[in-house]
């Protein structure tokens, strides 16, 4: 009997929504609807589109764990609770094929991909005709963007960086057709380059077919539009060290000079107060985020505030369990990150002397933990462009300095960089990387930034550094995949 794959989407699990705008983003499963009817009405098709986002924002994937794993693999956080369930093995660089963190993340990632594939298959067969050409193009583009983000996210943990051999190393099984029943799903790994090519193909399709803008702020932040695809492409190309392509994409949504804004589509711009981004989750700086409310939460032990803030009895305003404190030798020790910087308000301390600890307060919604999870912000697009300009031109580029200043100065008016501040292009590139560590602390960018440049993962506490040549530089493949896919190979 042939082995069966486990991440199968049952098309009967169709989701419905109420008429309220916020509730529209959080579909609630009613009685099952046969897959024979899943694509027969516009409402049912729209419910499935919303269901794709719901699957992506599962707490085991982009609703929490993706950010957490990529943060705690780096050097910015220290383990406070040696619990394997909440990532102790991830933090200590010691996961194995059977670690639940590995298996659950892989499974949810491919479940999301398969759900996108099932949706795209159903649209091609029936749904496109039901909703009409224009709306079908929008919906298919949303599905392909979710699929692209899912593949990209899996690549960051389970595959060698693109810079190692130009993408010639083993990547992921590239599944592009939906599975709705048990069957033989053996499939070998495509190369890293082939998976990235599919990610970009999906994002290019999305750019062309997504709405140019969306009217209401909540939907504009939590459903994809044209600029969402462009912004994600700047991240993808940066991960591939294709700097000219980063510049091309960023220039579509970044004006040539300060104040930097998007002049087409959604009018993205930096907010004057960075702390407002984590109170009002729907500003024009938040290009794409994973929303939560009291009816849908990230789930137990997936919530960002639960991980990073301690209990209220430890620090006033704490709402979590303090599973990870900030490393006092990490970015918070950087002397260039001045006390005047507004982002310092995200850092609070408890204790003194040998009991002194620092905590991150970027996410502060109390139980049931309804902070939106940021996927990509306009500040990242600006720093992506700045870094790409420096690395492409190998010079202290004036626009790159201006972009760096835009991000720094909105939080720290006492610091202004000039071209003369940097002796070499490498100095400026390093300053941009430092700014990324400050700006995106706790937003899941640190580990991907380290790996895309083949840098050593820094050590912390009693955990040694991990060089780019080490086997544990990337994660092993899920034991379930190795068991159920005869053509799969391990890292």
Give an overview of the whole structure.
This protein has helices spanning 21-24, 42-56, 65-72, 88-91, 100-131, 133-158, 192-209, 217-222, 226-239, 243-250, 304-308, 378-393, 398-409, 425-439, 446-452, 479-484; strands at residues 77-79, 286-290, 324-326, 347-350, 357-360, 373-377. The strands form three sheets. The chain has a two-stranded antiparallel sheet. It has a two-stranded antiparallel ribbon with strand order 2-6. β4 and β5 (357-360) form a beta hairpin. The chain is globular, with a radius of gyration of 22 Å. The protein has one domain (21-298, 374-456, 478-484): Serine Threonine Protein Phosphatase 5, Tetratricopeptide repeat. α9 (226-239) runs antiparallel to α10 (243-250), α9 (226-239) packs across α12 (378-393) and α13 packs parallel to α14 (425-439). Helix content is 40%, strand content 5%. The chain has 16 helices and six strands.
């Amino acid at each position: 009997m042939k082995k069966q794959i486990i991440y199968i989407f049952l098309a009967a699990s169709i989701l419905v929504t109420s008429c309220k705008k916020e509730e529209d983003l959080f579909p609630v499963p009613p009685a099952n609807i046969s897959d024979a009817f899943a694509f027969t009405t516009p409402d049912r098709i729209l419910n499935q589109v919303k269901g794709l986002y719901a699957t992506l924002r599962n707490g085991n994937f982009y609703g929490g764990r993706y950010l957490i794993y990529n943060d705690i693999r780096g050097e910015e956080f220290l383990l406070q609770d040696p619990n394997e369930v909440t990532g102790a093995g991830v933090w200590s660089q010691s996961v194995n094929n059977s670690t639940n963190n590995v298996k659950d993340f892989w499974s949810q990632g491919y479940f999301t991909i398969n759900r996108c594939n099932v949706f795209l298959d159903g649209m091609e067969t029936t749904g496109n005709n039901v909703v009409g050409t224009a709306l079908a193009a929008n919906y298919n583009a949303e599905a392909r963007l979710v699929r692209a983000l899912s593949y990209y996210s899996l690549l960051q943990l389970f595959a060698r960086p693109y810079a190692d051999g130009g993408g010639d190393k083993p990547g992921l099984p590239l599944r592009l057709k939906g599975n709705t029943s048990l069957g033989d799903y053996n499939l070998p790994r495509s190369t890293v380059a082939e998976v990235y090519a599919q990610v970009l193909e999906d994002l290019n399709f999305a750019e062309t077919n997504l709405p140019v803008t969306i009217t209401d702020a909540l939907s504009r932040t939590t459903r994809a539009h044209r600029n969402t695809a462009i912004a994600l492409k700047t991240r993808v190309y940066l991960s591939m060290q294709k700097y000219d392509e980063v510049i091309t994409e960023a220039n579509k949504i970044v004006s040539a000079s300060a104040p930097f804004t998007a002049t087409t589509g959604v009018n993205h711009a930096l907010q004057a107060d960075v702390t407002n981004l984590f109170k009002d989750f729907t500003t024009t700086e938040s290009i794409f985020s994973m929303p939560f409310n009291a009816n849908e939460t990230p789930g137990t032990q997936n919530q960002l505030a639960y991980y990073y803030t301690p209990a209220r009895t430890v620090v006033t305003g704490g709402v979590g369990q303090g599973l990870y404190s900030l490393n006092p030798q990490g970015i918070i020790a950087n002397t260039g990150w001045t006390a005047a910087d507004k982002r310092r308000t995200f850092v609070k301390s408890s204790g003194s002397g040998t009991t002194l600890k620092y905590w991150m307060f970027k996410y502060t919604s109390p139980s049931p933990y309804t902070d939106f999870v940021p996927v990509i912000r306009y500040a990242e697009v600006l720093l992506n462009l700045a870094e790409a300009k420096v690395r492409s031109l190998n010079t202290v580029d004036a626009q790159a300095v201006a972009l760096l200043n835009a991000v720094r100065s909105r939080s720290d008016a006492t610091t202004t960089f000039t071209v003369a501040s940097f002796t070499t292009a490498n100095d400026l590139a390093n300053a941009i990387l430092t700014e990324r560590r400050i700006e995106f602390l706790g937003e899941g960018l640190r580990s991907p930034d380290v790996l895309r440049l083949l840098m050593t993962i820094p050590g912390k506490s009693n955990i040694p550094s991990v060089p780019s040549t080490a086997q544990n530089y990337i994660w092993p493949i899920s034991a379930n995949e190795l068991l159920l896919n005869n053509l799969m190979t391990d890292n």
